[in-house]
């Protein structure tokens, strides 16, 4: 299969997606570029394993409850050169993998964003509050790191190259729902070349457990702001993941010839 000589893994955490996970997995395989799909069953709804067993995906299990724990386990089990993270709840479009891959030519990490109003479908759980909340937290991170543009901190759909994944993995601390921005900050801090692109965001199949109500969303937003502030203040004072700092500055460009004339990244 492969994509420009690189193997591709898709990782899916699952908790409450029994009715949508099979279609999601099959759609990823149908793209023709996916070598393996790893599903991490995080004490998921009864019947989930039966659905996964009906596909070519590999199921692994994580007991520790939480979005972060689940994704961390799934990524650890993935063997591809490129790792695509997604949710099997029908909100993301598996064909958007080609958008991530197009940018993976030039970047080490490609983050999705769900806040572009042209790509928010009718019924999607991305109303005014969630859209601007995600945007505001992303801008806060962008400002503190003086990075290129970010407009979302909670989009699971993203692509990470193996060298970057291996470098940041030892520094993961979050097992909860706010694992997403931790990955973003570690990538930025490593000096990896990162970009964010809009992806489709649709109505969910089944109930959202993370951002389903305003209280949960507010609490999550507060946790994210706390995490970002703590990380940035720690790194300002020479603490935090010191050994990760700038390890990828200009090193992992996918295609050196093609990128000869590119501007230097902001961290150089
Ligand atoms: N709620 C919840 N989601 C989990 C857990 N472990 C893994 N996940 C996954 O986290 C993702 C996000 O959850 P979801 O309910 O869709 O929240 P939303 O995307 O904010 O609407 C889904 O793919 C879940 O399968 C968990 O313990 N609780
Ligand atoms: Mg979801």
Number of helices: 8
What is the CATH homology-level superfamily? Answer: Spore Coat Polysaccharide Biosynthesis Protein SpsA, Chain A
In CATH terms, what is the fold-level topology?
Spore Coat Polysaccharide Biosynthesis Protein SpsA, Chain A
CATH top level class name: Alpha Beta
Your description of this structure?
A seven-stranded mixed beta sheet has the order 3-2-1-4-6-5-7, with helices on both faces. 35% of the residues lie in helices and 13% in strands. Helix 5 runs parallel beside helix 8 and helix 6 (162-168) packs across helix 7. By secondary structure, the protein is an alpha/beta fold. It has one domain: Spore Coat Polysaccharide Biosynthesis Protein SpsA, Chain A, CATH 3.90.550.10. It has helices spanning 21-30, 48-53, 67-77, 97-104, 128-145, 162-168, 179-190, 214-236; strands spanning 8-14, 36-41, 58-61, 82-85, 109-113, 158-161, 194-198. The longest helix has 23 residues, at 214-236. The two termini are 35 Å apart. The structure holds guanosine-5'-diphosphate (GDP) and magnesium ion.
């Amino acid at each position: 299969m492969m994509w420009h000589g690189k193997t591709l893994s898709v990782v899916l955490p699952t908790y409450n997606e029994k009715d949508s996970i099979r279609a999601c997995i099959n759609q990823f395989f149908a793209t023709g570029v996916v070598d393996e799909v790893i599903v991490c069953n995080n004490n998921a709804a009864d019947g989930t394993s039966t659905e996964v067993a009906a596909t070519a995906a590999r199921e692994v299990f994580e007991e520790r409850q939480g979005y972060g724990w689940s994704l961390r386990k799934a990524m650890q089990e993935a063997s591809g050169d490129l790792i695509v993270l997604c949710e099997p709840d029908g909100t993301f479009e598996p064909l958007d993998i080609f958008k991530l891959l197009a940018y993976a030519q030039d970047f080490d990490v490609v983050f999705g964003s769900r806040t572009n109003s042209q790509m928010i479908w009718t019924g999607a759980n991305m109303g005014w509050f969630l859209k601007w909340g995600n945007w505001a937290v992303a801008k806060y991170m962008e400002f503190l790191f003086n990075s290129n543009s970010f407009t979302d901190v909670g989009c699971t759909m993203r692509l990470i190259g193996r060298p970057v994944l291996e470098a940041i993995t030892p520094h993961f601390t979050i097992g909860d729902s706010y694992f997403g921005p931790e990955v973003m900050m570690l990538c930025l801090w490593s000096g990896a070349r990162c970009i964010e692109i809009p992806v489709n965001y649709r109505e969910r199949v089944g109930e959202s457990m993370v951002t389903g109500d305003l209280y949960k969303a507010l609490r999550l937003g507060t946790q994210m702001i706390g995490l970002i502030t703590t990380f940035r203040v720690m790194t300002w004072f020479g603490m935090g993941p010191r050994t990760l700092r700038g390890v990828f500055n200009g090193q992992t460009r996918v295609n050196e010839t093609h990128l000869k004339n590119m501007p230097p990244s902001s961290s150089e």
